[in-house]
Design a protein that fits this description.
Elements: H1 2-16, H2 24-36, H3 43-53, H4 55-79, H5 82-93, H6 97-106, H7 108-116, H8 122-130, H9 136-162, H10 169-201
Length: 202
């Protein structure tokens, strides 16, 4: 696996002559393609960034590419290709009907959770969000935070593969702290939702 990544990275650098964050010129379109069609995992883009830029800058570049791709795909599906999404993907979205209900109820938090845990492809998350009741501003925040969470987790899992022997202790502890903050904010937010629900029932 590590040799394959090194070969791809070497070919990429030699072919494009790009370095540093300039590789986003090519990897953002790759992320957009993945976000629309999904024929290769986004993890491929993350591994490419990490191998070319190192763990810190690679994760940052992946966050930028993933966030832009997720937002553009959402806009396209919501404002331009709604009929196409319904016609081509609705049969697949039925498989995730319970998550669609979760999106309608929890909005931001459902997107963050789905972006973090690889339960479904990234493109379906964008499609489902586009046809949900979620406001565009809410999706933008959830896409930003959800991509951060998912890419951070993937960085913890992939860094030892790309850089054998590397310690990921700081990444793990900082990620745990990040998750604890999210859990606390979610519990506070969920408590207020339940109070509103009870108020509407009385």
């Amino acid at each position: 696996m590590n040799e394959w990544i090194e070969q791809i990275s070497k070919w990429f650098l030699e072919t494009t002559q790009l370095s540093g964050f300039y590789i986003l010129v090519l990897t953002i379109p790759l992320a957009l393609l993945q976000g629309l069609i999904g024929f290769f995992p986004f993890a491929t883009v993350v591994m490419l960034h990490i191998s070319l830029l190192g763990i810190k800058n690679g994760l940052l570049a992946s966050w930028i590419a993933g966030t832009i791709a997720g937002q553009v795909v959402y806009w396209l599906c919501r404002y331009f290709f709604t009929d196409w999404v319904n016609r081509k993907w609705m049969h697949r979205l039925k498989k995730y009907e319970k998550w669609q209900r979760g999106l309608d109820r929890y909005g931001v938090w459902a997107v963050i959770f789905l972006r973090t845990i690889p339960i479904m492809p990234n493109n379906l998350i964008s499609f489902m969000s586009a046809i949900s009741d979620m406001k565009s501003k809410s999706y933008a925040w959830s896409n930003l935070i959800g991509n951060l969470s998912g890419i951070w987790l993937y960085g913890i899992l992939s860094a030892p593969i790309v850089f054998p022997g590397m310690s990921v202790r700081k990444l793990i502890f900082s990620y745990i702290g990040f998750l604890l903050i999210l859990v606390v904010v979610f519990m506070i937010r969920n408590s207020s939702i339940r109070k509103n629900d009870r108020g509407m029932m009385t």
